[in-house]
Structures are given as C-alpha cells and as structure tokens.
Amino acid sequence: MLSAIELLLEAEPGTPEDDELQALSILVDEYEDIHYPMG
To answer: Rounded to 5 degrees, what are φ and ψ at 18?
Structure first.
C-alpha cells in the first residue's frame, strides 16, 4: 500500500489521484492506530 501512496504523492490537488492519495492515507493512519498505538 505504501508503494501506491508513493506513486500518488505528486498528484495535483483536486484530481482523482489526489482523492485516492487522501483515502489511502486515512486507511494507513487507521491501520497504524489499531496495530501500532503510540500511547
């Protein structure tokens, strides 16, 4: 999943690619919160 995010990092704001980047970032954050809590 991180490789998919890497490919999308240069997406222009407001594009479908940017939307996909935002969605994947949220999923990664939620996964990390569940599996690797920081506090």
So the answer is: -65, -40
Residue 11, judged by CB atoms within 10 A of its CB (0-12, 13-18, 19+), counts as middle
Rounded distance between C-alpha atoms, residue 38 and residue 6, angstroms: 24
Q: What is the pLDDT of residue 3?
A: 86
The span from the CA of 34 to the CA of 36, in Å, is 6
Token duo for residue 34: 């569940």
pTM (two decimals): 0.78
